[in-house]
Write a structure and sequence with these properties.
Rossmann fold; 2 domains; two-stranded antiparallel ribbon; 19 helices
Amino acid sequence: MAQGSNNNDAFLGSAMQFMQAGQNMAQQFMDYLGKASGNAAPVQLPPADPQALTALQKHYMDQQMSLWQAMLAKQQGGEQSFKVEPQPGDRRFAAPEWRESPLYDYIHQAYLLNTQYLNRIVELMPAQDEKGKDRLRFVARQVADAMAPSNFAATNPEFIKLALETKGQSITDGINNLLKDFEKGRISMTDESVFEVGKNIATTEGAVVFENDMFQLIQYTPLTEKVGTRPLLVVPPCINKFYIMDLQPENSLIRYMVEQGNTVFLVSWRNPKEAQGHLGWDDYLEQGPITALRVVQEITKVKQVNALGFCVGGTILTSSLAVLKARGEGPVASLTLLTTLLDFKDTGEIGLFIDEQGVTAREATIGKGGLLPARDLQNTFSFLRANDLVWNYVTGNYLKGQKPQAFDLLYWNSDSTNLPGPFACWYMRNMYLENNLRVPGKLQMCGEFVDLGKLDMPVYLLATREDHIVPWQSAYESTRILGGNIRFVLGASGHIAGVINPASKNKRSYWINDDVKTDASGWIAGATEMKGSWWSDWAAWLKPLSGEQRAPRKPGNTKYKPIEPAPGRYVKERAV
């Protein structure tokens, strides 16, 4: 009886501690909001319905007591009548160690209750608009994720078990991993020693045929006996390296393009240094796609090319075409946009980082010159998925002393790029903050007032269903902006995995619906799901737009002689 009484007392003490922890988590959340708004003192809960708040607190206490009683019953051999399950996809507590011990079983479920409590507090808090409410939700998630018991040695049974099994070696390895990452200034997500750009990633054969201070133009070596007379120019995002499209032969979108009989050119953006810190949006258009299009035309001796843009590369490409249209030029016969925003009304969680105060501050510091560091961009994107891209590696690398597995996509994810300050500030203000691009004649670029509605070439728009950077409904709004005949396709998965979905593996699916006159909800309601990759659908769409077949030619010509083999120097420059 004495032993049972001691166990009861221990669990009761734990229950009281975790009830207090839930209250502390809520208070830390409020403290965070206070500091974020420039208020050094902790803030109190904003006015809310007192009855609703009292009911929430009572419900929370009742649930904690129910969990304590259920765990006590389980320990005594009974059925656990109350259980708290993680959200789908949350694998932080999937290891059996979290359930083998009654203490850790209780700890992780109590934490999940605390997280639910914090989220419900947020829903009671007033906000000026939905974006303000979304900011509160985002901050609450960051606070809750950071305080997970899996992140701390004392409350992580996997750490304790491994430390005992290795006689402390895992602790030593974890400390060494931490010190190495301190030297690098970032968390290691993969074994970076396994990969080398140009050696086992970014290996599609080709040559750099042109370069300026902003980009190198790669022309890839043909892989078919015949090619279309109309080449394909690819403009990837400048926010990270192009080789996400050319990781390894089996998942290379670039190689697939070449295998389909296209003469493929690609813009490999430079990773800006201080010398490029003065570059602005107009520079990226005039010295980027506009220059690349001219060079491609001169090399292939054609009047029109096909063009493809990915993410912000698509925004830059479309803006460049609008400038050329205003000049009376139409060098592009078809346009493909992959997960690209032209209407920035709803930008998902990334838009929560961008407000008037923040943009004004950036404009004052780097708006006239300087760099937006790669580390800032990488941290922003990582904390959009903090459990997967931050805390997962904190527990694996530092608590468990593990070496991250070799994964090409995560190697690319860690190879971030800087952005010139003037470019970044102009982009944030005119796109994310004011959503000016979609308004005909509102923006002047390269001396021309642009109207995207005048772009009347055929367009292939790809969005991805779980994209947390470019919400698919926002990408769909491009059907309302561009003037040409549009095919909209929705791929499965997210911003990267949904795009890099090799046709040869026949994984996932995509949705098609020729009716783009309806809104996004109407489109998806009438869409048909197709098994496999969107790559095949796009290749079939592009084929009749590629011109007559002819024998392929070697990269470059007498004016634009090959400078060096692909992937070139620029993509190998890493941010410091």
